[in-house]
């Protein structure tokens, strides 16, 4: 699948169509894998230097939970958005829980679900306090990481650029983007994944781990969640001149390093 390999040591807002940058990178579902993201961002920086231009990086959400380094991932995303103008974060369903905690509006039901679905790893990475002490953990995060609060508060529910729509989970068929429900954009599976007709845009999304554990191209969407937290593989799509150019994957090697490779679909 990969044509190029390098090995590194382990270590509802409405958006209008933007002017198109030279390269757009869409990265899905990092889930606390700062090690994999670090190598991905180094690849992006290398490409930017080679072309003497700045790309746009769209993070498709679920920065946090399950993996070991959620706070570091958010730091990496903050730095990337500052480095590459026009880059944005799409809020994932896991990110939503952290945002609600920091707002003081996380419901008891959502708190139980979040902790059960990987939130413990995030809160333990942020604080030494016992995980049930949510109010004080939230206060600590707001005090020590105000830029994380700002990132989540400024996250989008979707973004459209040219022929592509960038979203976390997917879209509801038959509903205009401006009228999409934010819950659907963060959570939808049934009704979207099994929809075969074309949408107005090609939808780039994460949220649902692909059956192949590789990026997958469908007639109306491109699926990018390759289960980084459990497969050790983080994937991105590269959009160039309003077309899918190639995919990039970073993944753990058997020797404990991290490789990066490109795949150009036929």
Overview of the molecule:
The protein is of the alpha/beta class. It contains eight helices and twelve strands. It has a seven-stranded mixed sheet. The protein is globular. The N terminus is likely disordered.
Over all CA atoms, what is the radius of gyration?
Answer: 18 Å
* Percent range of helical residues: 25-40%
Class of secondary structure makeup:
alpha/beta
Indicate the mean pLDDT: 92
Question: Could you give a short description of this structure?
Answer:
Helices cover 34% and strands 21% of the residues. By secondary structure, it is α/β, with parallel strands linked by helices.
Task: Summarize the topology.
Blueprint: E1 6-8, E2 23-27, H1 34-51, E3 56-59, H2 70-83, E4 88-89, H3 93-103, H4 108-126, H5 134-144, H6 146-153, E5 158-161, E6 164-167, H7 182-187, E7 202-205, E8 216-217, E9 221-223, H8 228-231, E10 233-240, E11 243-252, E12 258-263
Parallel strand pairs: 2-3, 3-4, 6-7, 7-9
Antiparallel strand pairs: 1-12, 2-10, 5-6, 8-9, 10-11, 11-12
Helix pairs in contact: 1-2, 3-4
Keywords:
5-stranded mixed sheet, about 270 residues, single chain, 8 helices, alpha/beta, 12 strands, disordered N terminus, 7-stranded mixed sheet
């Amino acid at each position: 699948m990969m044509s190029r390999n390098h090995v590194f040591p382990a270590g509802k807002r409405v958006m209008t169509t933007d002017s198109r940058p030279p390269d757009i990178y869409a990265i899905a579902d990092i889930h606390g894998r700062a090690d994999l993201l670090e190598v991905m961002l180094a690849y992006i920086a290398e490409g930017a230097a080679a072309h003497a231009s700045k790309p746009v990086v769209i993070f498709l959400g679920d920065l946090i939970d399950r993996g070991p380094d959620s706070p570091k991932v958010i730091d990496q995303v903050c730095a990337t958005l500052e480095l590459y103008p026009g880059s944005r974060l799409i809020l994932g369903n896991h990110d939503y829980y952290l945002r609600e905690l920091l707002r003081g509006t996380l419901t008891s039901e959502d708190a139980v679900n979040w902790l059960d679905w990987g939130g413990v790893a995030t809160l333990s990475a942020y604080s030494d306090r016992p995980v049930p002490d949510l109010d004080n953990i939230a206060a600590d995060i707001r005090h020590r990481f105000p830029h994380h609060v700002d990132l989540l508060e400024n996250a989008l529910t979707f973004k459209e650029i040219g022929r592509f729509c960038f979203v976390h989970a997917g879209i509801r068929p038959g509903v205009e983007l401006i009228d999409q429900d934010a819950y659907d954009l963060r959570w939808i599976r049934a009704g979207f994944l099994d929809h075969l007709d074309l949408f107005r845009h090609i939808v780039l999304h994460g949220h649902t781990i692909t059956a192949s554990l590789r990026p997958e191209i469908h007639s109306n969407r491109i699926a990018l969640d390759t289960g980084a937290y459990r497969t050790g593989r983080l994937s991105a799509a590269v959009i160039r001149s309003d077309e899918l150019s190639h995919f990039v994957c970073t993944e753990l090697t058997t020797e404990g390093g991290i490789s990066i490779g490109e795949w150009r679909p036929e």
